[in-house]
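Hello again,

I reread your note about wanting to compare the complex against the isolated chains. To keep things tidy I'm splitting this into two emails, and this first one only covers the full assembly. Below are the input lines as submitted, including protein chains and any nucleic acid or small-molecule components. They are followed by the predicted structure of everything together. The single-chain runs will come separately.
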Amino acid sequence: MTEQAPSPAAPTLPVSLSANPVLSSWIRFSPEGHVTVSPGKVEIGQGIVTALAQIAADELDVDIARVQMVRASTAGSPNEGVTSGSLSVQHSGRAIRQACAEIRQIFLAAAADRLGVGAEVLDISDGTISGPGNIRTSYWELAGDVALDRHATPGAVPKSSTQRTLAGNSVQRLDLPDKVFGHPRFIHDTALPGMLHGRVLRSELSAATLVELKENGARAIPGLVAIVRDGNFAGVVSETEAGAEAALGALRKGAIWSPGEVLPDEDRLAEWLKVQPAELTVIASKTASPPGEKTRTIRRQYTRPYIAHGSIAPSCAMAQWTGDRVRVWTHSQGVYLLRADLALVLQLPLENITVEHMEGAGCYGHNAADDVALDAVLLAKAAGGRPVRVQWSRADEMSHAPFGAAMTIEIEAGLDAHSEIVDWRHGIWGNGHTARPGRTGQPALLAATELANPFPRTIATNPAQASGGGADRNSVPLYDFPSWHIESHRLTTMPIRTSALRTLGAQGNVFAIESFLDELATERGEDPVLFRLRHLSDQRAQDVIRAAAKRASWKPAKRDGTGYGLGFARYKNTGAYCAVIAEVEGAEDISVKRLTIAVDVGEAINPDGVINQIEGGAIQATSWVLKERVRFDNRRVTSNSWTEYPILRFSEVPEVHVEVMSRSDMEPLGAGEAAHGPVTAAIANAVFDALGVRVRNLPIARDRLIAAMELTS
Amino acid sequence: MPDIRFGLNGVETEIDADPDSSLLTILRGPLGMTGPHFGCGSGECGACNVIVGDHAVAACDTPLWSVANKDITTIEGLGSAQQPHPLQRAFIAEQALQCGYCVSGILMSAAALLMRNPAPTNTDVRTALDRNLCRCGSHNRMVRAVLRAAAEMQAR
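Full-complex prediction:
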C-alpha cells in the first residue's frame, strides 16, 4: 500500500462571498472609467469604506480615485449581516479581494480574446490592459461585453502581499473632506423633498404605561400634521423641526404615565446580578492530568457597570410610505436585519420594505439607530406619503437606547506550594450582550414593545462562542494554565435594556483576568511582564508584550504618586493582539498620563487607519474606566445628560503611542475593539502600582477609589 | 415680529422668526446650514459650535435675539474645498477624526482660539477644546492638527 500525500484543501470562497456569490453584486465597471464597489458593511466612522476601496483598487490595478463606494441598501447590496465585531476587513475585505481577483482574470481573458494574444502577456495599469506592440484595451472598454452577473468560483488567487501597492500604505480617508468642510454627509443633515419632522413622546420612567394623553395643547401648535397614538407609543408630525419640538413639549404636558418595571438598586448591583434567574453555560473546562497539587486558593470579584454608547449624535432616521411600501433611511449597522424586524412589526413581506444606509455618528455598537427607524416608519404612516425625519433627544438617547451590560466576574485560582497556578475558575453574571434586530423572529425594536398589541421585550442573549461569544468573550485565558473551568450566567430578566457595546464582555473579562494576574504576580514578587511571558506560549502574544514593554522602557523608576501597569489580550482569542502599558498619576482623582500600545492586526491594510482605531479605542476605554457608569434609581435612568454621564474631555486625554507590528504575510484582523480590555486592565494595574490600592469595581472614580482604600487599610 | 439681522459667513442676513428660537434651529432650519450639528440641545457637547464675534458658542443654547447685528461664522464659512482654512487642511493631513460628527464644532472652537491666540501651546488647545466632546477618541490627533495649523499660519 502506498501512502498518499494529503491533498491540499479544496479552495473555498470567503464567507461573505459564499453567501453573496454574484460578482456584479460587489463590483461593477462603468464605461466612463469608474469601478463601483458595493460592500454589505457600512461606514460607522471606522474608515472601512477607505480600507475596502484600497483592497479593490489594489487587486484590480486601478487608481483609488476611480473607485466609487456604494452605501449598503437592501435594494441590491450583498447581505453581510451586521457591521460589528471588528470583522469588516475580515468579512468584506476578503470577499472583495477574492471577487476582484477573479474579475481581474475574467477581464484579462476577455482582453486576450479581443487582442488576439495570450492573457499571460497582458498587464493592467490603472484599468488599462496592455500588451506587447502597444496593444491595449481597458476595463471601461470591455465593461459592456463582460458579464459579471455570474457566481464567484473558488480558485482565483489574490495577489501576494508584496505585489500590492496600496494595501499596507496609509491613504487618506475618502469621507474626511466632506466632514471637515461641513458638507451634508450625515443622515442628520439630509433633507428629502417635502420632508416632515417627527418626534416620539417617551416617559423618563422605565417601561411606563401611558395612562392619559391630552392632545389639545399639541393640536394648537402651528405646523402640526398629525398626532400618532398606538398604545404606549405616541408621537407628533410637523411641517418643521421646531414645530415638532414644540408639539412634543405640549404633548408631554398632556401625558400621564404610570411607572413600569422596578429597576435594581444601583449600590447593590453586583450582588443583584448574582441572584437573578439565569441560564448557565459552561464556556470551557479542562482538567490537568494528573491534577496539580493545590495548597490554597485565592478568589477575587471584579465588576463593571452598565455603560452607555454615548454617540455624539442622537439617533435619526427617515421613512416614506408609498401605498403599502415603505422606504427607510437609517444609520443602522445592519440594513437587512433592520428590515427583517420592520417586516415583523408591520406584518409586511420583506420586499415591501427598502432599507438604505446613510452615515451617522460613531455608534460603538447597538444604540438607538434601529429603534428610531421604526419610530420614523410608524410616524410616516400618518404623513400622507411624505417622508418623515425623526431624531431622538439627548435624554432619550442616554436612557432608552440599550446599554452595554453590567458584569460581575469572579475568578478563583488554585495555587500549589510554589504559588504557581494549577487551577483557574472564572464565573460571569450579567445580562446578555446582544439584542440586535433581525436575529430571533421577534422584533428587538423599542416601539414594538410600546404598541397597543405589543411584542415582548427581547431579552439580550450572547453570541455563540464560535462568533467570539458575548458575556464570555475573552473569558478563556490565552495563558497556559493546566486546568480551568469557565462559566457564564446569563440573566433571563432584563429591567435595564442591554445590547451590543464595543467588545461585548471582553472589556470586563480582560479587566478581571489581567487584574487578577497582576495580583498574583505581585504576591509572588514577580515582574508582571515576565510573569505573563512565562505563561504564554503564543509567539505573537509574547511579541506584542515585549514590544510595548520595550517602548515604555519597562519598568520606569518609581516616583511618588505615579504608577505603571500592563494589560494584554488577543481580542476574542482569535483577533488582534494588543499589549498596553499605562502610566497614571494621582491620589483621589486618577489621571492617565500615557498609554504605550503594541498591536498585531496581521496585515494592516491602512496602517494609519489601524493606529487611529487603536488610539480611539484606547481613549474611549480610558473614559469608560475613569468616568463612565449608567446611573439609575428604582424607576428611571437618571444619567440622561452629559452632565450626569460625563465622558473624558480633551484636558484629561492621555498621550497614546501605538506601535503596529509588521505582519504583512498574515490575514488582516480588525482593530476597532482590540485596545479596550488591555487599556482597562493596564490602568487598574497602574493605579495599584501608584497607590497600593486594588480597585476591582469600575469605574475608577473618586468614590470607588476611596471605597477601595478603606478596604485596603 | 421685527426681522433680526446679522452677518452670516460674511453675508448680511435677515430673518423673520421668534427671537427666542435657538440660533441652531434657525441655522439648520430656515437657513439650511447643516454644518453645525445637533448633539444635546443644552450646550454640553459643542457639536453645534459657531463663532459669534470672536468667540465659539453653542448655537443650540444661543437665542436668536442675542446675535442681532453680530457676525456669525459657521463651518460653511470657515473655508471650502477650493480654499480651505489651514485648520481644515491640517485636520485632513493629520486624519484627525473618525466619525466626524463633532468635528465641525471642534473646528469652530479651534478657529476662535487661533483668532485670540495665534501661537497656542498644547495645553492652550486642550483648554480651548475642553467643552467639545469627541466620543471616537480622536482628541490627540485634533490637538496635533490645531498646532500644525497654527504653525502654518504663523509662518505666513
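For quick reference: The radius of gyration of chain A is 27 Å.

B.
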